[in-house]
């Protein structure tokens, strides 16, 4: 066991006006299983790069462990899997590799196949297994769940729970709860470490915010009351000052000593009120620095002329004329939010594309209603590039509405002037969701919409869908999202 000390670290990219980290200090134990959370673009992956010494920064990071980063970049994916794993962890024996991948539900036969023939989920699992066999290393795991189906996430979460010595970036609340014992959170104004899983952290965070909000409201009222008192005292003081050379209403001369005493008393009272007011203002300024505001989103789904929107009957997807899945049948009716569930490679995305009208080999029938308007969020964001203005023009979006949605999803205004290819994975996904929210449609088809999306935006999207109840067909492996949104589940 050792401790990683982060002391007064400040870092900013040359192209950024504001620093990503500003005089941050904290320490973590290398035996901890840390969940690393925060808004998209706050610097989670950047912090991993700092730990690995990839960027220059001011301050100090002291660590007696070697850092290893996941996802590990495999240079030659045509090599057999066991060769790739031996290169990652040369001191491990074959039986150790086989033991670890067995824990993750991976068949031993993948060891003797080219790495490139493994599914994304299988690649994720075998690389994690190899990296954890490197003794004395502290693993930096960057969003491993994006290529994992629901069952695989459960397996990996159980696997990680038995390990120690890692920081895990993930926005999957259910996944985090299953495998971490500490939370490292990047907040608006600082970074903090807290013992427990995500749910306990969120409970404490919400309580803190509620307490600060209540204190803020009380101080706001005190400041308003003191301002009124200050005005009254100033008025009384002015009246006394004006009466120094005056007379009483009865016409008798005033006692100058009495007037001077009263003026001094009023001045002291005014200064006391001013001091109390300033103290309240100072206390108020210390509050709500980490509050995460989540604005409500809106959607305008269209009502379709018929109750039934789409019928899928005995559909099997074919790859190279080979059947991928058992035949499935379902009907999408207005108001349904149907989750298409299944393992990686079971044909879920292909079924979505099939309904969209893409050229997919299949058996069975798909019947769509006439003049059906569909809004689609694709899974892959790698092709997104160019300027935001070009994206808006290409998709004929209402610029004001589109940018307003992005702002509500925590986009800063300076992001609007950046090249889209420089956006984080979560920001790219938000771009596609914002586009879909601008589109009035009868049916919304979303393919893994939450990949890379931060926790706050996930709950924001959940609230939107629960309020406006659009007709949906979606694929998503976030268990919490599934339980909140799906009205029906179709298993493949």
Question: What features would you describe in this structure?
Answer:
By secondary structure, the chain is α/β, with parallel strands linked by helices. The chain has three domains: 3-204, Rossmann fold (3-Layer(aba) Sandwich); 206-285; 308-491, P-loop containing nucleotide triphosphate hydrolases (Rossmann fold), CATH 3.40.50. Helix content is 39%, strand content 21%. The protein has 14 helices and 18 strands. It has helices at residues 44-51, 81-88, 94-103, 120-132, 150-161, 173-179, 198-242, 256-285, 348-356, 388-394, 399-408, 425-438, 455-468, 479-485, and strands spanning 3-11, 21-29, 33-38, 58-62, 66-70, 137-142, 166-169, 182-186, 191-195, 308-319, 322-323, 328-333, 337-341, 362-368, 374-377, 443-447, 472-475, 488-491. Helix 5 packs parallel to helix 6, helix 7 (198-242) packs antiparallel against helix 8 (256-285) and helix 11 packs across helix 12 (425-438). The longest helix is centred in the middle third of the chain and has 45 residues, at 198-242. The chain starts with a strand and ends with a strand. The model has no long low-confidence stretch (mean pLDDT 89). It comes from Shouchella lehensis G1. Residues 212-225 have a biased composition (Basic and acidic residues). Residues 231-251 have a biased composition (Polar residues).
Summarize this structure briefly.
This protein is an alpha/beta fold and 492 residues long.
Features of this protein?
5-stranded parallel β-sheet; alpha/beta; 492 residues; 18 strands; coiled coil; 3 domains; 6-stranded mixed β-sheet; 21% strand; 14 helices; Rossmann fold; 39% helix
